Amino acid sequence: MNANVPVKVKAVSASVGVSQAMVSVFLRDVRVAFRQKQDLLNPLLFFTMVVTLFPLGVSPEVAFLKQSGAGILWVAALLSVLLSLDHLFRHDFDDGTLEQLMLQPQPLFLLVLAKTLAHWILTGLPLVLLTPVLGLMLHLDGNSVATLCLTLLIGTPVLSLIGSIGAALTLGLRSAGVLLSLLIIPLYIPVLIFGTGTVAAAAEGAQVSGYLALMGAFLVLALTLAPFASAAALRISLSNS
Amino acid sequence: MWQFFHKLGSPKWFFGIANRFMPWLLAGGLILLVAGLVWGLAFAPKDYLQGNSYRIIFIHVPSAFLAQSIYIMMASAAVVTLVWRMKLADVFVKSVAPVGLLFTFLALFTGAVWGKPTWGTWWVWDARLTSMLILLFLYGGVIALDRSINDEKSAARAVAVLVLVGVVNIPIIKYSVNWWNTLHQPATFKLTEKPAMAMEMWVPLLLSVLGLYLLFGWLACLRMKTEILVRERRTRWVKELVLAGRK
Amino acid sequence: MPEPLLQAVGLECERDERLLFQNLSFSILPGTVTRVEGPNGSGKTTLLRILAGLNDAWTGDLSWCGKPRDQHRESYLRNMLYLGHRPGIKPLLTPLENLRALMAGRRPLNDDALLQALSGTGLSGFEHVPCRNLSAGQQRRVALARLLIADEPLWLLDEVFTAIDASGVEAIESLLLQRAQEGGAVIVTTHHDLNLPDMGRITLGVGPSDEC
Predict the structure, then answer these.
(1) Long-range contacts, stretch B20-24, CB < 8 angstroms, 24+ apart
(2) What is the CATH number of the domain that holds C163?
(3) Is the pLDDT of residue A151 over 90?
(4) Where is the signal peptide (chain C) (predicted)?
(5) Domain end point (choices C151, C168, C186)
(6) What is the domain count for chain C?
């Protein structure tokens, strides 16, 4: 290579722009996920199975399912996201790509945001797409299913974003999975309440745009704050390893 | 500036201050609390609706107050931990989290006991009680995370992040639980909404709240002192202190 | 004397209630190779992670080109290459994809340059094989390929010789020397018997031992 040419200290501007770095992180995560397709299917299978437990465990009566269907689907989706969060940073942590990510001359919170978005595309979005099928099995009417899908579409990214904080905090700890759930479930409650509440309001024929706007506000808040908290938590967890 | 904060956060300095204040906190707290409780339980007038059962508020309300303000105090300390890395702030958060959990539990328990004569059932999914239950979960998470991380400094910083995330969420949780409550059951009874309370009820309540705050201050100092002794057991001043105490 | 690239003054690190080092000061001048030495558990890896900026549980002062390092984090990261214990290679991706991802946030190169670097580490013919099908040594070579295309003046290398065969070791040694000659600086930890001319040393684990 370029022998005896003195290596110089470079200005930061000599590195690539942050948007390009984010795209690269995002694409890498998507590519890795598609090489391990089972990991993509697991949350969906889990989602379906949890939903199946309710008619079996409580009651298959149409009246019950109609009334509780939205709640069941929301809880099942929440648990599926929770289940998949453990992987968000763990593989990267184990193989050392996470430390290389943190050493990129880029703002860490934006790289974390890119990873979290990839997580949502790979787990949250498929759950939303599967929801209409399960909604029909729970005898929800078309209007409810549509509202439900909308609330999940706005709500699942919030779940991924808040969850990323928990995943970062518990990285490298014993029984991280259980601990992650303990830390994160209380923080999921508002999203769950408004997600199911919106569907209930729609079923009563109320105007739901206000509720959806409120959920949108949750999403904006999570988008602006969660990446900072996750990045801070990652620094702490990596310091400790 | 940094140096000043460093001194302020010095465990040894705190030890001296705590020793000076603790007797006052304990005495003041006990006097106020006993006065408040005796007045409230024995002398305050009966409630015209609930009879004597309302008297549990003299324990319930102070506990609920403390349960919430301890979390806020922990969040303030968490900011100090993250920004200035002050040891004392770490010690504070770690020491008072279980106390916060205890008061939250006490508030829930007394709420349930109060619920039995008032609603005829131990538990009602009332907005206040549900928010308290979630607060209990938040405290539980903080304690669980703290215990799962071996390294003291990492644990303190991780917990600080979690507490701050929690404190941002508390108003959102409260708001959404209130909304959920109105959605599912029209407000019939509310734990806090009482027809204008008589002065004879207010004063003892205020006394017991103040008393419990002072007692919390005493308990926090005590727990922090213990935690500091454990953490600083290798330093010279702790060794000297322990040796001096033995003589 | 040229300005040191990296300067540490009074570093102290305590981990799990054990004091790893205290009052550690050194300067890394351009044109040098420095080896961090010490018995197992003396904090070699921790020191390298502190220098890289991955571990921030330390006290003291670290300056980069005369300025406080933590206030010039991005500039520092842009000019520092860290290879850790864990190679930073995704088993599901091919060497080429891995290298591309590692370079993407710093200095994207075209595939030709990356392929050339891979063949330079003896991975010709494996460029498109998923890394989980490669041996441990080959996986490490993927990470090491970055040294062939690195423009960062400061290298922090933690146990880079692990799982590398004799000819590979020789090649890496000459790369380290070359970087020093070009005016860069290298800090390494290794169990391998590394002995380069004019090698600096930072020795850990000789300070006050644990008191009970």
Answers:
(1) B21/B217, B21/B221, B22/B218, B22/B221, B22/B222
(2) 3.40.50.300
(3) yes
(4) none
(5) C151
(6) 2
DSSP character for A5?
A: P
Query: Which strands sit side by side in the sheet containing C185-189, from one edge to the other?
Result: C80-83, C154-158, C185-189, C32-37, C200-203
Interface mutation target, options C13, C14, C17, chain B, most CBs of B under 10 Å: C17
Kindly tell me the number of DSSP H helices and DSSP E strands found in chain B.
8, 0
pLDDT at B188 over 50: no
* Closest-CA residue of chain C to A6: C182
Q: Which of residues 7-66 of A touch C (CB under 8 A)?
A: 7-12, 14-16, 20-21, 24-25, 28, 31-32, 35-36
Q: Distance (Å) from the C-alpha of residue C157 to the closest C-alpha of chain A?
A: 13
A15 interaction partners in chain C (CB closer than 8 Å) = 74, 78, 105-107
Contact criterion met (CB < 8 Å) for C87 and A96: yes
**Any idea where the domains of chain B sit in the sequence?**
21-182+205-242
The answer to whether residues C101 and C63 belong to one domain is no
What string of pLDDT tens digits covers the 212 residues of chain C?
A: 678 899 999 999 888 778 888 889 999 999 999 999 888 888 899 999 999 999 988 889 999 988 999 888 888 999 999 999 888 999 999 999 999 999 988 887 888 999 999 998 888 889 899 999 999 889 999 999 999 998 899 999 998 888 888 888 888 888 999 998 888 999 999 888 777 777 888 888 765 444 33
Nearest Cα residue in chain A from C183 = A6
Q: Chains that contact A by 3+ CB pairs under 8 Å?
A: B, C
Q: Which domain holds residue C91?
A: 86-151
CB A44 within 8 A of CB A74: no
Tokens standing for residue C80: 């520092």
Residue B196: is its pLDDT beyond 60? Answer: no
Q: Residues C1, C59: one domain? A: yes
How many angstroms separate the Cα of B204 from the Cα of each of B30, B46, B61, B198, C122? Answer: 14, 13, 12, 11, 83
Structure tokens at C154: 């400061």
My answer on whether C175 and C185 are in the same domain is yes
Residues of chain B positioned with their CB less than 8 A from the CB of A239: 154
As given in the structure block, the two tokens for residue A86 are 């453990």
* Nearest-CA distance A84 → chain C (Å): 18
What is the pLDDT at residue B148?
Answer: 93
- Measured between CA atoms, the residue of chain C closest to residue B153 is C57
Question: A199 with A150: CB under 8 angstroms?
Answer: no
Convert the pLDDT of each residue in A68-116 to its tens digit.
999 999 999 999 999 999 989 999 999 999 999 999 999 999 999 999 9
